[in-house]
Amino acid sequence: MVDSWSDLEVYKSAFALQQALYVESKSWPKSETYSLIDQIRRSSRSVGANIAEAWARRRYPQHFLSKLADSDGELQETIHWIETALASEYLSPESAESLLSQANRIGKQLGSMMNRHQSFCF
């Protein structure tokens, strides 16, 4: 049973991705601190944060759906930054593939929630 946003599998997946990106980005060049590192950490953290906020808005189906869409938008931005880190050779192809696989799984979970968002609302 889901009692809280923290019980949602999509939230758990988003949190795991956020933490994996935090660990990966620790070794990136200091020159990227205020650009790529901040951006990828911010967008990846926003995925889960928007899921949590969506959960609080379940009384209002359209608000709930809107926050899920915001979460998906942040996820797409995160994917962009992962691809940028790969192109900049800050991520190995294997790490990037793993991170992108996690992100794509989250995207599918969010898509499923958005398609049946009414079932989460009361």
Features:
0% strand, 4 helices, mainly alpha, 122 residues
Task: Describe the structure in your own words.
With 122 residues, this protein is mainly α. 75% of the residues lie in helices and 0% in strands. The chain contains 4 helices and no strands. It has helices at residues 9-25, 33-56, 61-87, 93-115. Helix 1 runs antiparallel to helix 2 (33-56) and helix 3 (61-87) packs antiparallel against helix 4. The two termini are 15 Å apart. The model has no long low-confidence stretch (mean pLDDT 97).
Quick gist of this model?
With 122 residues, this protein is mainly α. It has helices at residues 9-25, 33-56, 61-87, 93-115.
Order of secondary-structure elements: HHHH
Shape: elongated
| Total helical elements | 4
| Straight-line N-to-C gap | 15 Å
Cα radius of gyration in angstroms: 15 Å
If you average the pLDDT, what whole number results?
Answer: 97
Residue share in helices? over 70%
Q: Give the class from helix and strand content and strand pairing.
A: mainly alpha
Largest sheet geometry = none
- Number of DSSP-assigned strands: 0
Runs with pLDDT <50, length 5+?
none
Strand content: under 5%
Secondary structure layout:
Blueprint (H helix, E strand, L loop, with lengths): L8 H17 L7 H24 L4 H27 L5 H23 L7
Helix pairs in contact: 1-2, 1-4, 2-3, 3-4
